[in-house]
From TrEMBL:
Record keywords, A-Z: Signal
Name this protein carries in UniProt: Rhamnogalacturonase A/B/Epimerase-like pectate lyase domain-containing protein
Species annotation: Victivallis vadensis
Keyword flag Phosphoprotein: no
InterPro entries: Pectin_lyas_fold (IPR012334), Pectin_lyase_fold/virulence (IPR011050), RHGA/B-epi-like_pectate_lyase (IPR024535)
Short name of any one Pfam family annotated for the protein: Pect-lyase_RHGA_epim
Transmembrane annotation, as ranges: none
Domain Rhamnogalacturonase A/B/Epimerase-like pectate lyase stretches: 130-179
Domain of life, per lineage: Bacteria
Cleaved signal peptide residues: 1-23
Length: 656
């Protein structure tokens, strides 16, 4: 029986209740418990706790008064307490599996703080300043600066390991007409093969500005420096950092010359055929026939520019030009779904709610970002403002302790939205990012999402290994085998990589692959197994003093374990201010635990806080893996649903 107790007499609602999880199925199945050697886990766990206990004073000294380091120390201490509890527990067999996972995750903290101590002991490098104007760059808004910036970065690379270079960009508008495509960088430059760097040693990347394999570099504007990129292109980010170490990009404004979205005023409505005509009010908008005009979602606004959440979003079937700057959009039938606060796509019925004079925005979303980092370590994006992006404003994949400080996502005057996707999209981090003092508004999707994707089991090869797609696990890492139909973990195993690039699990585990299901040999299963890697799940994520307002989705989506969100706020988010959980329906299967939400607040939005574990098909799982979540002095006000808190799949919550 679920129990929710609220201080109903207060204008601010606080959680005082707990969830009775006794009826839930276990997260780790009996098979998973049998795959673990209890005595080995207990021995390794106690040894790790002893090591961490001896090293903690050095960690504390290295942290000093730095808030992010202090909060990560708090998460580490709490994680140690939880590990000790699970090692000693006898009331639930699956707790030994939680302990095995915690050992893997706490080792990430140990590696991180040891690296902090090592870096702080290094003597500073001499500084060399480079000005992009010395290579022909011009901030006149017309000159193509692609080649001058490439030359400046190549010049800085010649000093790597000997100098800390700073590339200065003076005030002005620096235009970039042509992206760099297929630029190679070495993924194992910073990340050893056993941590995934050797999976694809040479990676190729695309971007208007590509910063690859740089070290101890700063790229800095001068206070009023804008980088203007020609048009959004699939898979092309404005600034792309690949395998960089201690690189800082700061003091910049980022925008596109041609918008990645179409906005305008409704001039005609045909409810019978489910179509509207939109007169664009932006001559630089995406239009049918352009390469970056894509099928996508649309939102309606009042003539004054306020989101009309109750109308849902509109999924276009097709679009055609209806005039020089006019587009006729056709929509599909209305469809609803569980746990979606609006119809998945709005058709004829929703079109009838629209009126001429209302505003609409069509999002032409393609992969890419304003600033994207891949396999970077200890790199920082600071005081960078993104006005438009074809998807995410800030994207960090496979990162290690990267930071986003005082960054902003803003819509410019006259525009309805800012980005086409998330504000901060933090995917499969080796160690969690830090997001501090950042702001975002009018984003199309979530404000912030930290998570790890799965590796889908495709087929078994002649070698006996299993081929996987999506995000491959690291060799030697601990992985969990997830039954996607129940959300349960059916085995824990170490993985190794074979010469044919397939993966072998130890102990050997029978898996259900996509090929087996297609051949009718999946034992009645409709979905294959997936693997989640506990070495790249964003452990150590921290968000402090950050806020989002007036946007689609959720403001803070926390799917990484050992995470802290403090003094953050959400105003008028479409779905929820804060979501702690697992989105298996998006192939994101890490289950957050040891999460601290402290002194956060929401105003408006459908819900203040949602906690749940979602499976493919928008189904809520029957297990309760979302554990040890501390809710401390949070407030959720004036939610549109009247339900400020929505809780599922949670065990052992705490409140103070």
């Amino acid at each position: 029986m679920k129990k929710f107790i609220f201080a109903a007499v207060l204008p601010v609602l606080h959680i005082f209740g707990v969830i009775d999880a006794s009826a839930a199925i276990p997260y780790f199945t009996d098979e998973a418990v049998r795959s673990v050697d209890r005595s080995t886990v207990q021995s390794e766990g106690k040894a790790l706790l002893d090591e961490l206990g001896r090293e903690l004073p050095a960690y504390e000294k290295s942290a000093g008064n730095e808030t992010v380091l202090l909060r990560r120390l708090e998460l580490l201490r709490r994680g140690m307490e939880l590990l000790e509890r699970n090692l000693e527990a006898t009331d639930s067999p699956e707790l030994i599996c939680y302990a095995a996972v915690a050992i893997e995750e706490l080792r990430r903290f140990q590696e991180y703080f040891r690296e902090i101590i090592t870096r702080s002991a290094r003597p500073p490098l001499p500084v060399k300043v480079i000005n992009v104007t010395d290579f022909g760059a011009a901030g006149d808004g017309v000159t193509d600066n692609s080649e001058p910036f490439r030359k400046a970065l190549a010049h800085a690379m010649s000093f790597r390991d000997r100098y800390a270079c700073t590339i200065m960009i003076p005030d002005g508008t620096f235009y970039f007409a042509n992206p760099r495509m297929g630029v190679p960088f070495r993924a194992d430059y910073l990340v050893p093969p056993e941590k995934g760097g050797g999976l694809d040693k040479i990676r190729k990347t695309n971007g208007y500005i590509v910063i690859g394999n740089q070290k101890n570099l700063t790229v800095a504007g001068s206070g009023n420096t804008e980088l203007l990129f020609d048009r959004p292109l699939p898979g092309v980010s404005c600034i792309k950092l690949g395998a960089c170490d201690n690189v800082t990009v700061k003091d910049l404004f980022i925008d596109y010359k041609m918008r990645p979205f179409t906005q305008g005023t409704i001039t005609e409505i045909n409810a019978q055929e489910g179509s509207v005509v939109l007169q664009s009010d932006d001559p630089e908008a995406a239009m049918p026939g352009m390469a970056h005009f894509r099928r996508g979602h649309m939102w309606s606004f009042t003539p004054e520019g306020t989101f009309q959440w109750e109308h849902g979003f509109f999924m276009m079937k097709k679009a055609e030009k209806a005039g020089p700057l006019a587009v006729r959009y056709f929509f599909g039938d209305d469809r609803g779904g569980n746990f979606n606060p609006v119809p998945l796509s709005a058709g004829r019925e929703a079109v009838r709610k629209l009126r001429p004079g209302m505003k609409m925005v069509h999002v032409s979303r393609v992969h890419g970002g304003g600033v994207q980092l891949d396999f970077c370590r200890f790199s920082t994006i600071e005081n960078v403002t993104v006005y438009a992006s074809q998807a995410m404003a800030f994207l960090d994949t496979n990162g290690y302790a990267d930071s986003f400080i005082s960054c902003n996502i803003r819509r410019r005057p006259g525009r309805m939205i800012s980005t086409n996707g998330d504000g901060f999209h933090l995917a499969s981090p080796l160690f969690g990012s830090a997001v501090v003092n950042c702001r975002g508004e009018y984003l199309y999707d979530d404000g912030l999402n930290t998570y790890s994707r799965h590796a889908l089991v495709e087929k078994q090869l002649l070698s006996g290994g299993w081929s996987v797609s999506d995000i491959a696990p690291f060799p030697s890492s601990l992985v969990g085998v997830v039954n996607q139909e129940t959300g349960q973990i059916t085995a824990l195993a170490r993985c190794s990589r074979l010469p044919d690039r397939s993966y072998q699990l130890s102990p050997a585990v029978p898996l259900v692959s996509r090929e087996m299901i297609r051949a009718g040999n999946g034992n009645g299963r409709q979905l294959p197994d997936s693997l989640i890697c506990f070495s790249r799940n964003g452990t150590g994520f921290v968000a402090i003093d950050t806020s989002f307002e007036n946007h689609h989705g959720k403001s803070f989506m926390i799917q990484s374990p050992h995470s802290l969100v403090e003094n953050c706020s959400s105003v008028n988010a479409h779905q929820a201010g804060f979501h702690v959980g697992t989105m298996g329906n998006w192939c994101e299967y890490t289950s957050p635990h040891n999460v601290i939400l402290r002194k956060n607040r929401t105003e408006g939005g459908k819900h203040g806080l949602m906690i749940f574990y979602m499976l493919p098909g928008n189904r809520i799982a029957g297990c309760n893996p979302l554990r040890d979540i501390l809710l401390e002095d949070n407030s959720f006000q004036n939610c549109r649903s009247g339900r400020p808190v929505l809780l599922h799949n949670i065990a052992q919550p705490e409140r103070r």
